[in-house]
Amino acid sequence: MTTDAPWLIAGLGNPGPWFRLTRHNAGFLTVDRLAERHGARFRRRGIGSVVAEIEVDGRPVLLAKPLWFTINQSGRPVAGLMRRYSVPVERLVVVQDDLDFAYGTGKLKRGGGPGGHNGVRSVGDVLGTRDFVRLRFGIGRPPKGQSVGDYVLKKFSDEELTAMPGVLERCADALETLVRLGLNRAQDALNVSA
């Protein structure tokens, strides 16, 4: 890996305004917050993606939102951006919603299975490896009687939306720490036990 290779932080979500504040779009919301911090705008780039370019302490970082039909087909656009910008897998970060963590909590880790998240599965399948970093944004479990599919496609509750700015700030802080200081330091700042 060359030291000047960019980072690619890909937030997963579903395209379209209706999905904007749904739980499945936690990844989009996180990269949106990072772009806002740096005054960057998303522009269409590559195969089915919009990209914003920022720098973190002089290090180039691409923020991406794959827009390939649905979140479940995120792998092709992510792989296309990695090829276009010569991003090694060690510098790929995928931001996903995660049912295994309570809302407002999360975890950074490298590798591991997709945990039932089809967007993460798609990225791993297309790349042929799961050795990338994931920021798992906790959304909690659905209430009894509600399917997972319905739950992740519902909008965040009013209470969750009230807490959202602080949650997004913590995620953005952790991602910037990852770029600046590495995974271990970023994990210390964000990780919680399941």
Automatic annotation (TrEMBL):
Site entry (Discriminates between blocked and unblocked aminoacyl-tRNA), positions: N14
InterPro entries with a match to the protein in the record: Pept_tRNA_hydro, Pept_tRNA_hydro_CS, Pept_tRNA_hydro_sf
Keyword flag RNA-binding: yes
Active site feature: H24
Main localization (coarse): cytoplasm
Residues under site feature: Stabilizes the basic form of H active site to accept a proton: D97
Keywords linked to the UniProt accession: Cytoplasm, Hydrolase, RNA-binding, tRNA-binding
UniProt-annotated location(s): Cytoplasm
Pfam families: Pept_tRNA_hydro
Highest taxon of source: Bacteria
Top enzyme category: hydrolase
Signal peptide: none
Residues at which tRNA binds: F19, F69, N72, N118
UniProt-recorded Gene Ontology molecular function terms: peptidyl-tRNA hydrolase activity
Catalysed reactions, as listed in the record: an N-acyl-L-alpha-aminoacyl-tRNA + H2O = an N-acyl-L-amino acid + a tRNA + H(+)
EC id: 3.1.1.29
Job of this protein: Hydrolyzes ribosome-free peptidyl-tRNAs (with 1 or more amino acids incorporated), which drop off the ribosome during protein synthesis, or as a result of ribosome stalling.
Classification via NCBIfam families: pth
HAMAP family: Pept_tRNA_hydro_bact (MF_00083)
Assembly and binders: Monomer.
Family: Belongs to the PTH family.
Name of the molecule in the record: Peptidyl-tRNA hydrolase
Protein species of origin: Kitasatospora cathayae
